[in-house]
Structure formats: structure tokens, C-alpha cells
Write a structure and sequence with these properties.
By secondary structure, the chain is α/β, with parallel strands linked by helices. The N and C termini lie far apart (88 Å).
């Protein structure tokens, strides 16, 4: 049995090394060679093997209380002492204060085990010099406001501690502009050690996870993989979770689409996405949510499927902020070519600034403003949620960005607005969908059959060319 599986092992080892010279010398010889394996419990040893065998990027999903912060420092020390020459290991977390506490607390403990002079702290700049080659552990924050200060330099290993709890856009920027360039010359390794993010569309889930899966450089360890916890302690951890989502995410390492923070949790990509044959008679409508300098421009091409009482989203446009109005009009007009306007006139609803509406109309692009009133934002969200729950909205598979918006769109922390992200904007396509549902034309689109089938009767002739058969069905002849 691995003695490190005992939760009190480290402190017991410190006591034994202080009282037993043989134990102390044996431990110091191992550490001098960079072998810290004897400090790790079984699961931590598995993580070390996976990282060592992985390519230039590795993702480890870890349960809370698995000892990942202790493991990170042990792995960094082992890397520095076995690299063979001076190198740098960087450890990043959300903020500089957070990463300093994580590293300092664990290094203070480990230093009680290591030979004198093996680890020396430079207090002025959050650095620790390790071993005879003078390798260093350096710290850095991932938050956008501070990460730029860590540009430059090189590293052979960079470890991100809990990157899933850094805003997705900030992490993407930090990795792309600061972290990856530091690994370029050394062909070094980037390791993400984290519990899954509360944001299902997070950079860790959407970019890092599939990239690491493709190379087999991923592992997932739940609370049940922790040899230092008893069944009773695991049950206590479960009981202390305030929601089932918290338990599944923090301790079972599942990527959870939260019922609380997801705006449209009723959306099911498999159930609500399919391509339908376009009916001969339907009221089509273009719906726009125009942004500006900050928000994206979103547009949907829709029609109301009268036979089945559902709204069909046939196509989309999704354009960057500051897109010229002329380009928005051109893209929208191109999208509208597939519509079958029953009366030959496009129907358009556009949430746009007043002057933009005037300019659009002056250019011949006729639109009307959506209906808004107090409470309409919350009512619009609830209406769309109800429509999805009843199966009354169907989305063409080509509408990639709308489906991603519905799958991953989140509220802000106060639930007073949509969360803005670089990828999905201000959920502008969801806003367009809310207007599309609110303003769908529910009237019967089928042509009247004079004297027998009036529109108010809601009679639908399946084949209006066969008037005789239609009349017989109406009068029962």
C-alpha cells in the first residue's frame, strides 16, 4: 500500500525525518535526483504519468480536495531538478494574490522536507530558485488587467491552476498572447489542472478539451478517486453541496449546463434542430437585432409553420460590431432570397437606434421597430423558453451561431442582463429570436376558396389545384 494515501502522511514523514537520519538522507537523495514520487498518493502519481506522456498540452479535470495544488508544486520541483540545465516553470492562476498563496503555502510545507538550500525564495518578485542549476518557479495572474505584465521570457513548463474559473475570454487572451509564446523556443508543455467551469461554453471546454482529447492528453479524476477520503467524508461533501449541479461539477468533474445560469435551458440541440421542407404557404419574416460599436449584429430568416403551430428559423446572419449598415443590408437581402413572400413584400422587424431606422427606410430597406414595454425582456425570455418546452421552435442546422447562443448563453451573475462574451456577443441572436417569436404572423396563409373555405374557418386545402375534391370534403359530398 502507498503510505502517501494516508492523509496524515506528510506530517508524519516530517516528524520521522527530523528524528531519523537514515530516513532523512534517503529522502534527500531521491529529491536531489528530482524524484518526489514518494510524496504523492496513487491518483497524483497517475496524473504525473499522464502529464509526462502527453504532448505539448495536457488537461486534467480534478475534483476538489484531490490535492491538485500540492501536486502542481511537487511536479514543478521535479521538472526543475531533472531538466539538466537552468529553466523556468511558470504557475498561473486567476489573480496574483491567489497564485502566490497557492504556491507559497505548499512550498513552505515542502521546504520542511527538502535539503537545506534546495529551495530559496526571492521575496521581492514572487520567485523561487530551485536546485544547483538555478531553475526558477515564477508566478503570474491570468486576469486580463495584469497578465500583460508577464509577457516576454521563456519557460519549459507552464501550469495553469483552476483556469476554468477565469473568464473564458480572458483565458483565451492570456493563453494566446502571453503563455503560448513563452513555450515556443523551448517546445515546452502547457498543463491545465482544474475543475470544470460553471460556463459550459468556456474556452477550457470548447477549445482545450477537444484539442487534448485528440492527442489522448486528458484525464478526469472525481472525488471517488481520492484515496485520502473515506466514504463518510465523501457523503458529507455531497450533503454540503447546495445544488446537484455543484456536486456534479465540483466533485464529479462533469460539464454541467446550469439550470440557473443558462438563459434557455429548455433548448435541446438534438430535439430542436432539423431541416424541414419549406411549405408552399407560410408567412416569412426577417428579424434583426442591430448592435453598434460594442454589440454584434444579428439577423434571422423565419417563417411560421401554420400546419404545426411552430416557428421555423431557416437562416441567420451574425456580424461583428461596427459592420457598416450597407453591409448589413446587403447580407440581409442576400439571406432573404430564399423567402417566399406571399404578397411580394418582405416583412422585417429590426431593433435599431432611431436614426438607423430612418436611414434604412430612406434607402428603401423597409423595417419596423419591435414592440417593447415594461417587463418585456423577462416576458420574452419566458415565452421562448415555453416555446422550446412545447416543441414550437425548430432551427435549421445551418444556424450555427443561434444554436451555440441557445446552448451556452448565460445570465450575468446578478441575472439582470445577458453575459457578454467575445464569441456570442450580448446574446444578440437570442434577442432576435425573442422578437421573432413575439412578432410571428399566426394568420392562416392558405388562399381562400370562395364561398366555402374562408380564412376565419381555418380550413386548409392540401391541394388547392383540386378544387372539386376540396369542396366535397368541405360540404361532406
Amino acid at each position: 500500500m502507498n503510505p502517501a494515501n494516508d492523509p496524515n502522511y506528510i506530517f508524519a514523514l516530517i516528524d520521522k525525518m527530523e528524528s531519523c537520519e537514515t530516513t532523512r538522507e534517503a529522502a534527500w537523495r531521491l529529491m536531489a535526483r528530482g524524484n518526489f514520487n514518494f510524496l504523492l498518493h496513487d491518483t497524483q502519481r497517475k496524473i504525473a504519468k499522464i502529464i509526462g506522456a502527453s504532448g505539448n498540452e495536457c488537461l486534467i479535470f480534478c475534483s476538489r480536495q484531490l490535492g491538485k495544488s500540492f501536486f502542481i508544486i511537487v511536479y514543478a520541483l521535479s521538472h526543475l531538478l531533472t531538466f539538466g540545465r537552468k529553466t523556468i516553470v511558470r504557475v498561473f492562476s486567476a489573480t496574483e494574490e491567489q497564485v502566490r498563496d497557492i504556491v507559497a503555502d505548499n512550498l513552505d510545507l515542502i521546504t520542511r522536507l527538502t535539503p537545506p538550500g534546495m529551495i530559496n525564495r526571492k521575496k521581492s518578485d514572487n520567485r523561487w530558485v530551485v536546485g544547483r542549476h538555478g531553475g526558477e518557479i515564477r508566478l503570474g495572474p491570468l486576469a486580463a488587467a495584469h497578465v500583460d505584465g508577464k509577457r516576454g521570457g521563456n519557460a519549459s513548463l507552464i501550469i495553469l491552476e483552476e483556469p476554468g474559473f477565469v473568464k473564458s475570454d480572458e483565458l483565451r487572451t492570456a493563453v494566446g498572447s502571453v503563455i503560448n509564446p513563452q513555450l515556443l523556443r523551448s517546445s515546452g508543455k502547457l498543463v491545465h489542472v482544474t475543475t470544470p467551469s460553471a460556463d459550459p461554453a468556456h474556452y477550457i471546454h470548447q477549445i482545450v478539451l477537444p484539442r487534448c482529447e485528440a492527442t489522448g492528453s486528458i484525464a478526469r479524476y472525481t472525488i471517488y478517486d481520492n484515496p485520502q477520503l473515506s466514504e463518510a467524508q465523501i457523503q458529507t461533501a455531497k450533503e454540503r453541496c447546495t445544488t446537484d449541479e455543484e456536486w456534479r461539477r465540483e466533485y464529479l468533474c462533469e460539464i454541467v449546463r446550469s439550470e440557473h445560469s443558462t438563459v434557455i435551458p429548455e433548448f435541446d440541440n438534438a430535439a430542436h434542430t432539423r431541416e424541414l421542407p419549406i411549405p408552399a404557404y407560410a408567412y416569412w419574416q426577417t428579424v434583426l437585432d442591430m448592435g453598434g460599436t460594442r454589440d454584434k449584429h444579428a439577423g434571422l430568416m423565419t417563417y411560421n409553420d401554420f400546419d404545426n403551430d411552430r416557428l421555423v428559423i431557416e437562416d441567420e446572419i451574425f456580424l461583428s460590431p461596427n459592420t457598416p449598415t450597407a453591409e448589413i443590408v446587403a447580407k440581409t437581402t442576400e439571406m432573404e432570397q430564399q423567402a417566399r413572400w406571399l404578397d411580394g413584400k418582405p416583412r422585417r422587424v429590426s431593433d435599431s437606434p432611431g436614426q438607423v431606422l430612418v436611414d434604412l427606410r430612406a434607402s428603401g430597406f423597409m423595417v419596423r421597430a419591435p414592440e417593447k414595454e415594461s417587463g418585456s425582456w423577462e416576458a420574452g425570455i419566458n415565452a421562448v423558453r415555453g416555446a422550446f418546452a412545447r416543441g414550437q421552435i425548430v432551427i435549421n442546422p445551418r444556424c450555427h451561431w443561434l444554436r451555440r447562443t441557445l446552448e451556452y448563453g448565460q445570465y450575468n451573475k446578478a441575472r439582470t442582463d445577458f453575459e457578454r462574451t467575445e464569441e456570442l456577443g450580448h446574446l444578440d441572436l437570442l434577442a432576435a429570436l425573442m422578437y421573432a417569436w413575439r412578432h410571428r404572423v399566426k394568420a392562416n396563409p392558405y388562399p381562400d376558396i370562395p364561398a366555402y373555405a374562408r380564412r376565419e374557418s381555418h380550413y386548409i386545402a392540401k391541394d388547392t389545384r383540386d378544387r372539386g375534391s376540396a369542396l366535397k370534403r368541405i360540404i361532406g359530398g
